[in-house]
Amino acid sequence: MGCTRLVYNRALAARTEAWYERQERVEYVETSAMLTAWKKQDDLQFLNEVSCVPLQQGLRHLQKAFANFWTGHAKYPNFKKKHHGGSCEFTKSAFKWKDGQVWLAKCTEALPIRWSRQLPKGCEPSTITVKLDASGRFHVSMLVDTVIEPLPKSDKSIGLDVGITSLITTSNGDKITNPRHFKRLRSKLRRVQKSLSRSSKGSNNRHKQRQKLALVHRQIADSRKDFLHKLTTQLVRENQTIVVEDLAIKNMKKNHKLAQSIHDASWGELIRQLAYKCEWYGRELIKIDRWFPSSKRCGNCGHIADKMALNIREWDCPKCGINYDRDLNAARNILAAGLAVAVCGANVRPDSHKVKGQLRNTPERSQRGKKQKPKS
Questions:
Q1: Which of 17, 327, 351, 364 is catalytic?
Q2: Nearest to 119 by CA among 94, 136, 101
Q3: Of the residues 21, 24, 161, 279, which is catalytic?
Q4: Per-domain residue ranges for the chain?
């Protein structure tokens, strides 16, 4: 991992220097030639002691990072740091798989793996990635080619309304409480962070405190992922159709009073897991328009309230007089709108509830809204 990090950082520095000093764009082929030259230097002879595959894979990952930067999908690549952990990737020519054991290239012993799950029968890994996180825990990820059998079809459909007090409210009337994993361990995180800030830079105590801080962050992340995986798996197994809102979570985080709670709730990760699990198991995930007035719309008569503050959790419809729980009404409206989209492709936003500045697929808008081609 150290050699992979060294090669990655050297190649990134060379590519950055070539562009800013000589306006030259260095590609993967040039960095691969640089790696061959680096191995011949006296101070870098240790690069010959490890397999060349993870070093080359690191250069390929750097090339992909630059490709994402050029297309605008990511920021400029950063240098890798030792205390952040690291990873190295081995393709099929750099490891041996036999009887459920793995021998990496230039290693005499098999990896002592404690399996979290067994590989599917008849499958052999094509790529193995060894990762080290900041807390000192190793992970071995194996990529296999297999077919996931879809679940038996169900006649159940459900609408989900995400929130902060209740993580999700379902159209069936259930409310799943938000565990607030970060808030639960916030005082412990604050105490460890204080100790880290008071320790001297470069000392052994600072290194120990950094690992303690990473352990707390790992505990928060593990508990959050475990809860979300169990919740999304249950939803996918029980329902054939799941309807959610296509929320602009990145924009919602600009509200500094709610940003921390939205981060802790992990709405984006929740929807991401639902998306790929529905694709795996033959379920349908429907995302309705983010501007659909699910909370302000009466589920009985269709009346839409003009304004509704976030602190209003219950409201009475001024037309039909029915009392609504805000989240439950929103979940039911989301389900109804999603089923309308699935059946006939209906427009889920009523014409009376237009949003100023919202783009629509009209000929005039389509002509004015074309993206400008990037300059060569």
A1: 327
A2: 101
A3: 161
A4: 2-80, 86-143, 156-179+221-353
What's the N-to-C CA distance of the chain in angstroms? 37
pLDDT attached to residue 280? 93
The per-residue pLDDT for range 66-99, each reduced to its tens digit, is 999 999 999 999 999 998 889 999 999 999 998 8
363: pLDDT strictly greater than 70: no
Is 80 exceeded by the pLDDT of residue 274?
yes
Cβ contact 260:182 at 8 Å: yes
Domain boundaries 156-179+221-353, corresponding CATH code: 3.30.420
Model confidence at 362: pLDDT above 50: no
Q: What letters, b where the CB count within 10 A reaches 16 and e where it falls short, cover 312-325?
A: eeebebeeeeeebe
Helices (H), 239-305: 249-252, 259-265, 267-280
pTM for the model: 0.82
Active site residue 327: yes
- Examine the residue annotation and report whether 245 is marked as an active-site residue of this protein: yes
Residue 9's Cβ-side half-sphere holds a number of Cα atoms within 13 Å equal to 11
